[in-house]
């Protein structure tokens, strides 16, 4: 077992073996292994099939940039995740791993036929192929694309895991815990700042883990990591591992995704799987290092072909040799060191193939001392091997001419095309990049945020450079925050600095049009595709990207973008900076939906506001409906009633006896001050000056555009104090609007507003028995019609509770609304409910409320109005105080369009058959026989069956409606045309006699 | 962990080493609004110097005040003292107009205590809690809901929540407590 | 998520406590005397919609409750200044000078 593991090497825990399954077969590794390192330790390179051509693929790298080794992972029931990057997922006993994009099996895959049809799947394949005929879209093309698209299988069960989120404020956030990040965090924290250090890996150290030979200030690298982390923690630094900085947003807000349980075999059930952190940092230090580039040549994607730096990581971090027999192909010095480490560990290095003619002297010496064959000035032109590389074809390149090929046998190929600074997060900030011609890469330039970039991220190469730059940038951040900081300089030995050159495709003696030279491994984009895109007219890198899909996979082109740019620039004959780089966007790595959702699922999905009486409604079988953020009782079914049955009974009971209704959700605002009445005059359309204390009035609120915003009954408690009610949904907006006028337009007024919506529970009693029921409980007020007429208000005591009692009705029946402090709401409800039994009381919900008010022609703002309706349109212009010099909306009502003919106006509709219930939202036409498209002249706003009227009733907004009363309109529906008479809006008790009982 | 009752029965909701949460007994609570020039007169009348820095608090006997805005204070006291407060304000209203509005039943209050209190608040409150000095507070937001946060000690807080939002906020707080306890 | 300095609280606080409230320095014409249709239309609907520094209003709705004014660059999303309602409209040239 673990044939490729070197005992004693690496950081895995050899005392803790771990067994997991890969495509059903048990694989063993050690604690500390990733899926990939464990598979490689067992000699398994084949890990998946590619997206488009289904080519066999293995891991190319050892980090989160991995494009190939994407697997399905299953941790338990419902806990399946597709496209897990096998290079970062830690193993634990019981983890189930499956390969993707293959059928029936990984080693024999039918979809691989696509690879043989390679020449057909050129750039822009989709655009070119699925064009016509149009009728093919629904039945042929779309199903085909849908079944072929996507990588991995979506989970089909509900995610049982928990997700969490937190806000975090820190002085300095350091992203990346490699040498630069560790040194930066040390500088900043020694200066006395709150520092947070994050890294996506399970442990801090970064490159230092792959470079154990490094000695820092006399201390071996790994020991230095341990002592540095210990010092950071002692200085109060929050060191967060397995935590990816996914996005960098305005004003130094950085999103972090912390993975908490995916590496554990039996996590605590209350532990969230992931936690999203919203970090606000005063300074950010980006120490994200650099990512290695592949070389682009035919067959550079075969299992066994991998980045040289990653092979070095597998060796030093996990103690795993990626093969027995390696060829190294490189254009950068770093791969030579990887070759040396592997050679020293017992892997046979067949040759180091360097594209450069004259490698550095010390590298050549290092190779010679290990008896490694050196082939400098060579190109790689092809590989062989079905499920694993067997050989590589190489050719000398002399003065640009490709010479005769030679074939080298191997079981792995380590490539390096140089390194790209990782500037993804910097790119999120729209920081500008500058092209460095020497390094053939983009480097950070102008910054838009308070951040510093340290180490390899800004093109510095080597451990010493990273450490010293990190220390310096930490000190810069500290000084920016007015702290004293010293620039630590580290003494580093065994550092491996180096240089390299950059390439497009490697030169070849074969037909480049037939080469499978991959640039984007995840999306299967080749060099040929990029050149074709340019030939076909894509001249912007953004167009090339979308036409070829280069860099559009979930890895966002971490490995491919620079190679893609080099090739596109070459094809266009322009320098790279003239072609430009596509923009990286958050998230840095794929992030689960769960992390973004956080707590907001299940019971925490959103706020559900409940009234003090809600619990009674629930206990009594109410059916609820959401009304803005509230849940309100819609109806109270009895004995298996449906909604129509319940509403019919509730309506009848309320009109014949008494009904009670929880109106607590009504918005309430207390208006107090010597200018209260002046404020009311300016705010509402109605005149308020003559409203006596103890009286109430229907108030209508407009916007300054003249359209109806809100309405409600308003009581004057004393000269200087009003109790306003608003509609349920607009309470907060009305208060906001009032504060706006008070704070910014009418600063002279001495009046103040307080929201009392939730201070009061409101119980509405309606029906001929309402007074009989209420009277015995009221102290301090005679509520007879003479002493307490319709539209009165009083502060009194009801059932022993302090109360504000309104005589008001939204049903057309004798009505009262009792407001008591919310803590007494349910007790009062119960008292009235019990006492109401002798009067045949029912509880009714919002549906009955709607029917009863519609019978009376009372509008609901937001249902019968839609933000374009004036009081005239709604037929309530009587509510306008025409003699007032000004009020909100007064001037707006005089706007030409608002006084023009042909406006939509609120009318009643009665279907001519007396039976058909109109659909709310249905459109009205004047001539049902006109050709389609018909001219629509309005729509139904409210529609109910009315027992009191004995037929369905409806409201509609109808063009020129007030002048059409008595005419017929038509409502074309799928089942046929309905005809209706246009009527007034009051269907029941037009004289209002029932209110005056 | 105790369930929150629909009646908001006071009592401990979560107890633990990391953090404890209790629903506190109701108090008499008022919104006081007035103009800056009238602060001295009202302070004299109610017997507490109204703080003028937003977030600052003042105490006298049973009365506690937080300045919520340039013209807005939250005053709370025990139920027995509320009549005195109402009468004191009424007595000066003619000379010193202001708004005193009873909001006793509008909010419920939870106390949050323990070494995990700051972490717990950070699950819903975007403010830098470290910057809220002991003995001060603020109106802020918790998971989208307006709340008033009082910092009574390094690891002791109170949170006032409008009644209808309380089940949501307290439910989330309880989830947060379980999470903190699991760490 | 932005950080916004509330001129009343004298603190820089998370955007979640604030609500955007439209363009600033648009005074409501006194409607008790005649106002032309055009003037009223301008008050209701006509906005500068600038690309760049924008005078706008915010409300510290989950805080002190005050409406205040700000100048924010609509390209970079950076605030150049926030100031109390009723205070003089700051000169853009001064702000741009200061922000350098």
Automatic annotation (TrEMBL), chain A:
Residue ranges of every copy of the Aminomethyltransferase C-terminal domain listed in the record: 904-989
GO biological process, one term: tetrahydrofolate metabolic process
Domain of life: Bacteria
SUPFAM superfamilies, per database record: Aminomethyltransferase beta-barrel domain, FAD/NAD(P)-binding domain, Folate-binding domain
Keyword field contains Ribonucleoprotein: no
Molecular-function annotations in GO: sarcosine oxidase activity
Gene3D superfamilies assigned: 2Fe-2S iron-sulphur cluster binding domain, sarcosine oxidase, alpha subunit, N-terminal domain (3.10.20.440), BFD-like [2Fe-2S]-binding domain (1.10.10.1100), FAD/NAD(P)-binding domain (3.50.50.60), Probable tRNA modification gtpase trme, domain 1 (3.30.1360.120)
Domain called SoxA A3: residue spans: 515-596
Alphabetical keyword list: Oxidoreductase
Protein's recorded name: Sarcosine oxidase subunit alpha
Protein species of origin: Thalassospira mesophila
TrEMBL record, chain C:
Alphabetical list of InterPro entries matching this protein: SoxD (IPR006279), SoxD_sf (IPR038561)
Highest taxon of source: Bacteria
Gene Ontology MF annotations: sarcosine oxidase activity
A Pfam short name: SoxD
GO BP terms in the entry: tetrahydrofolate metabolic process
Gene3D superfamilies on file: Folate-binding superfamily
NCBIfam families tied to this protein: soxD
UniProt protein name: Sarcosine oxidase subunit delta
Species per Swiss-Prot/TrEMBL record: Thalassospira mesophila
